[in-house]
Amino acid sequence: FRGADEGEIGLLLRLAEPSSGRISVGGIDLAECRTELWRRLVAWVPQQPTIFRGTVADNIRLGDERASDRAVRDAAALAGAARFVQELPSGYDTLVGDGGRPLSSGERRRIALARAFVRDAPLVVLDEPTADLDRTSAGVVAEAVERLRAGRTVLLIAHRPELVAHADRVVLLGGGAAVREEA
After folding, report:
1. Which residues contact 119 (CB under 8 A, 6 or more apart)?
2. pLDDT tens-digit profile of 50-79?
3. Taking the CB of the first residue and of the last residue of the chain, which one, N or C, has fewer CB atoms within 10 A?
4. How far apart are CA 136 and CA 38, in angstroms?
């Protein structure tokens, strides 16, 4: 989607309910689906992902608290995070977040993508995954987004043409409605 805002994302994630109309997925009105069940089917990577105080592995496991060490490492590799994580003083056991090691914007984004990989949800919502990243970090994140698309439906909210160019379908939003669609 191009032109989506946080309110529209919140509606899809069931963080808010529509004041009029309805949201349906596969012909099912989301209002009829239990919120916690719906959210299990969705992985969300916000534009500014939160890194909580804990280890890198703990932060990746926010996608699936039952994930094995191997699943965490595999998710990090798919997200393009494995290299920088392995260079940290204690690798996946390095304390990050509030009071821990600060991470760059690109590193935070890759940890958030690793959460999405480890969650393995059929629907992934990505909000501006390369916003404010340098060219190198943006390239790593874009490659991870391509890997994340495999076998999933990905709703990519982006303004960067290089990300939008990979989409199967582009919907331009304006005023809360689809303005134009491109195949």
Report:
1. 43, 63, 64
2. 999 999 999 999 999 999 999 999 999 999
3. C
4. 35
Helix (H) / strand (E) element for 10: namely helix 6-12
Neighbours of 179 (CB within 10 A): 11
Here the tokens at position 86 are 């392995």
**Among 159, 51, 182, which residue's Cα sits nearest to residue 109?**
51
Kindly write down the DSSP assignment for every residue of 58-123, as one continuous string: HHHGGG-TT--HHHHHHHHHHTT-HHHHHTSTTGGG-EESTTSB---HHHHHHHHHHHHHHHT-SE
Digit-coded pLDDT (tens) for 80-122: 999 999 999 999 999 998 877 889 999 999 999 999 999 999 9
CB atoms within 10 A of CB 166: 13
The DSSP element (H or E) to which 156 belongs, if any, is strand 153-157
